[in-house]
């Protein structure tokens, strides 16, 4: 099998066409199915416009079947891009990907409007950040219809006082409020924000358990 030099996002590798075509149904094999489809850099190396750092573990798997032990989420993303299905399946069995894809994300799919409400929280925090070191967003979390009904009056009162509240729930998953709080905290921090949450609601005791304050620090 012919030897080829690769430039993957500025990282250089040497391998064979047979290795790159190991899984015929993959996007990587398709890239090297014919010379006409290849893109070359100034030195004549085959160029792939992807992050080269995580191509090394991909190449090792193609060569020897060795599974990566580090940077699993990043390698998983690249394996998805190159459509290397056997590697994708192996990585989905690792604790990192299984926990994220099967456990956490499946839970969040059962929380109506999770992504939209998360985005709303960030927008509200940014809107209140003008000339301020911190901004705070009030969040209401209700697990079921009964809790939703219990909070109705408090939400109407906050709305009448022009106090913004981001409401999550009810949801059908078995996880608790603390699980959803951790998910929110994790996903906001993943966007680069400094955030923490506390249970210090100014509302009456009978509904305070449903309200939490997320504090964003800007400097």
TrEMBL record:
<feature type="domain" description="BTB">
    <location>
        <begin position="2"/>
        <end position="99"/>
    </location>
</feature>
<dbReference type="Pfam" id="PF02214">
    <property type="entry name" value="BTB_2"/>
</dbReference>
<dbReference type="GO" id="GO:0051260">
    <property type="term" value="P:protein homooligomerization"/>
</dbReference>
<dbReference type="InterPro" id="IPR000210">
    <property type="entry name" value="BTB/POZ_dom"/>
</dbReference>
<protein>
    <recommendedName>
        <fullName>BTB domain-containing protein</fullName>
    </recommendedName>
</protein>
<dbReference type="InterPro" id="IPR011333">
    <property type="entry name" value="SKP1/BTB/POZ_sf"/>
</dbReference>
<dbReference type="Pfam" id="PF25611">
    <property type="entry name" value="KCTD_C"/>
</dbReference>
<dbReference type="InterPro" id="IPR003131">
    <property type="entry name" value="T1-type_BTB"/>
</dbReference>
<dbReference type="InterPro" id="IPR057890">
    <property type="entry name" value="KCTD7/14_C"/>
</dbReference>
